[in-house]
Amino acid sequence: xxxxxxxxxxxxxxxxxxxxxxxxxxxxxxxxxxxxxxxxxxxxxxxxxxxxxxxxxxxxxxxxxxxxxxxxxxxxxxxxxxxxxxxxxxxxxxxxxxxxxxxxxxxxxxxxxxxxxxxxxxxxxxxxxxxxxxxxxxxxxxxxxxxxxxxxxxxxxxxxxxxxxxxxxxxxxxx
Length: 175
Description:
Helices cover 9% and strands 43% of the residues. By secondary structure, the protein is mainly beta. The chain has one domain (22-174).
């Protein structure tokens, strides 16, 4: 190879290798998650929730490289929304959708977190991380929630740790 061609190829290769990648991924751990909803049973004979109804809630934190952000949503029991909820940081939101198996309840959903960033040039970039989350399916890879019934009219409370939770942390891989 002639020296001038070699240096041209070398210069081109260096430029390509040092250029930033068009896309990157980030890992976003979800160290805490709690859900609370009415459930089918009130804990009182007759199972009548009249006068004791409350909204279902989902509260979690997601850890970004820049720090943790709290997220929270609430909705009418059994009417799990697909519209986005804003989190406690600008440009961060989450939404719920059916699992890859098609299930969509308070204890079976796909959690998607979206983070929108603006670079120094004013260009916006959006990263999205999603993961199926189900409850009380011990031994299943996506069973992150352990859910138990509380006292009468307290409903069902779920936590990311417990006997039915998958060992290890829930981590969203965002691209």
